[in-house]
Design a protein that fits this description.
single chain; mainly beta; 8 strands
Length: about 90
C-alpha cells in the first residue's frame, strides 16, 4: 500500500531553550537533512514544528545553533553510528 497524505499523522515536536536560537530537526524522515526549522512564535524559548509522517518508527535529533542534540523531552533513545544517541519517534496508525 502506498503511503498517501491521508495515511499520514500530524506530529508536533517541541524543544525548550533560550529565545533567539536556530533550532532545526533532522531524522530518518528527511534523510538527516537539518532543513526543517522549529519556530519560537512567542519568543519565549518554546520551539515547535509540525510534521506529517506516515505510521512507523523514526529516529531524529535537533540541531541547535549548528550543534546536534538529543530531545530531552523524549526518553526513547537508541545509540547511533557516531557514538551518540538518537531519539525514537513512533507514529501510530489511527
Amino acid at each position: 500500500m502506498k503511503k498517501t497524505a491521508a495515511t499520514r499523522r500530524a506530529v508536533v515536536l517541541t524543544y525548550q531553550d533560550a529565545p533567539g536560537k536556530s533550532v532545526m530537526v533532522a531524522g530518518s524522515f528527511n534523510d538527516w537533512q537539518p532543513v526543517r526549522k522549529l519556530e519560537d512564535k512567542s519568543n519565549d524559548g518554546t520551539y515547535r514544528c509540525r510534521l506529517l509522517l506516515a505510521p512507523g518508527e523514526y529516529q531524529y535529533k535537533f540541531q541547535i545553533d549548528g550543534e546536534w542534540r538529543s530531545d530531552p523531552a523524549n526518553p526513547n533513545i537508541v545509540p547511533n553510528e557516531f557514538g551518540s544517541l538518537n531519539n525514537v519517534l513512533i507514529v501510530k496508525e489511527k
